[in-house]
Amino acid sequence: MVSENENFIIAQAREGDRAALNALVSSHWPAIYRLALAKTSNPEDAQEIAQDTFLRALAALPRYKETNATFKTYLSRITLNLIIDHYRRRGRAPQVVDIADYNEPIIDPDSRPEEAVLNTERRQEVLCLLARLPDEQRQVIELRIVRGLAVADAARIMGKSGAAVKMLQQRALKKLKELFTEQGITGGEAGAGQY
C-alpha cells in the first residue's frame, strides 16, 4: 500500500517541486540501481538504466495514477522494461528476476529517522562524487567497495592484473577523498566505506 506521505511527495513532484522530485529519486535510486546491476552485472549499464528509469518516470509523472502498488513497484516495472530493451539491443536474453527480491528496506528500521535521512543524503553525495571519477576508477570502486568483490574477481571483470586493480583502487580512493574535501564533506573515508 502506498503511504500518504509518498502520495503527497508525488503530488508535489507533479507540480514541479524540485525538492519532492529529489526526494523521490533519493529514496528509490538504491533499489532501482541494485535491480539493474543484478540483471546486467555491469555498473555502467546499471547506472544508465537507473537514470533512464527516473527520466521516464519523471517525464510521465503528470500521467501517473495512484494505485495500490507502490511507486517503487512502478519504477521497478519501468526498470525491467528497460533491461529487456537493453538485452534486445545486445541480442541476449535477460535472467528472470522477481521484483519482490528487491523490496527489502533501504533504510535500517532500527535507526532513528534523522540518521536515516543523513545516511540517505550521504549515499547520494557519494554517488554524485563517484560519477565524477574517471570510468575505470569508478568501476573499480563499484566492484571492490560497492559490490565487495575480491581483487581477483574485479581484475577478471576489468581485464586487468590484480596489481593494476589495486593501484587503480588506490588512485580512485585518493581522488574520491580529494572530491570529498573539495565539496566540504567531512568523514569521506567513512562515507565511502559504507559501500
Automatic annotation (TrEMBL):
Highest rank taxon of the organism: Bacteria
What's one GO MF term for it? sigma factor activity
Please name the InterPro entries in this protein's record.
RNA_pol_sigma-70-like, RNA_pol_sigma-70_dom, RNA_pol_sigma70_ECF_CS, RNA_pol_sigma70_r2, RNA_pol_sigma70_r4, RNA_pol_sigma_r2, RNA_pol_sigma_r3/r4-like, WH-like_DNA-bd_sf
Transcription is among the record's keywords: yes
What keywords would UniProt list here? DNA-binding, Sigma factor, Transcription, Transcription regulation
Q: Is-annotated flag, keyword Mitochondrion? A: no
Provide the GO biological process annotations. Answer: DNA-templated transcription initiation
- The chain positions of domain RNA polymerase sigma-70 region read 24-92, 129-178
Name the family the entry cites.
Belongs to the sigma-70 factor family. ECF subfamily.
Q: What name does the UniProt record give this protein?
A: RNA polymerase sigma factor
Organism per entry: Sporomusa termitida
Instruction: List the taxonomic lineage.
Output: Bacteria, Bacillati, Bacillota, Negativicutes, Selenomonadales
